[in-house]
Structure formats: structure tokens, C-alpha cells
Amino acid sequence: MCHCIQIRNCCLRALPKKEGEEQKTIKIQAWWRGTLVHRILLHAALRACIIQYWWRQRLKGLLEKKRSSVLENYTREKWAVIKLQSWVHMWHARLCYCRLLQAARIIQIYWRWRNCQAHGFFRGRYDLTASHLGLELDIFLGSHICWDHTSVGLRTSSLSQ
Questions:
Q1: What is the pTM of this model?
Q2: 108 to each of 20, 103, 105, 112, 114, how far by Cα in Å?
Q3: Does 101 map to a domain?
Q4: Which residue of 15, 79, 90, 145 lies most exposed, with the fewest beta carbons within 10 A?
């Protein structure tokens, strides 16, 4: 067994040691290697914890984004449904209103015609002279009175001149 220390493939001779010292040296070296391995494992565990924390945060952010987009789409869809329902409701209300308005117009036209037929009359007089025609008409349609006073000039024929 060689008691030399090798540095870059060079062998340096150490002083001979006693048998008890060699056992102590081996124990110290083993302890030191164990400490180094322990430190390396702690660093590796710390790095693994850091990577796991980062990954969990990343997944949490992605999940939050997905949840937010799903909620936004749901909200947008609900608003679209509500708008569409309100448009249909207003269209139906307008349709009913237009039907009632048309019915009211028909009833009004009927009553106006009935009043004109039942209570309406007209009277008038005219003046006819050689050069013009004068008309006076009074028309009574229910509560409405219409007066027309018209004077029309008559053309005389060219033969009589």
C-alpha cells in the first residue's frame, strides 16, 4: 500500500504514519466526505424546492388565467342572452303596440265616417254672371265646419267679341 498523495498524476511521498493515526485520518476523511455529500444534498434539495415553488406559482397563474377567461366568457354570454331577451321582449311589446294603434286608427276612421254620414250635410249658393261664377259652400261634418268661398272668372268665347 502506497502512502503517497497524488496531485495531477504525480505521487508525493508522505512521511510514514503510525497505524492508529491512519485510522483517525480515514475517519476524518470519511466525516469530511459525508459533510460534503450532506452539503451537496442540501443544496440539491434547496434547488429542487425553489424549482417546485416556481412551478407551483406558474401553474397557479395559469389556472387563475384560465378561470378568469372562463368567467369572462360566461359573463359575456350571459349579457348577450339578456340583451337578446330584452330585444325580443321590446319587439313583442312594439308589435302589440302597433296592433293596438292600427285598431285605434280603424275605429277612429269608422267613427269619423259614421259621424259624417249621420250628421254631415252641406249647403251652398252660387252667383252666375256673364264673366264669372261665385260659389259659397258650407260643409258640416260632425263637429267640423268648412267654408269655401270661391270666385271663378269665366272666359268669354272669341266669337262673341
A1: 0.41
A2: 130, 9, 5, 6, 10
A3: no
A4: 15
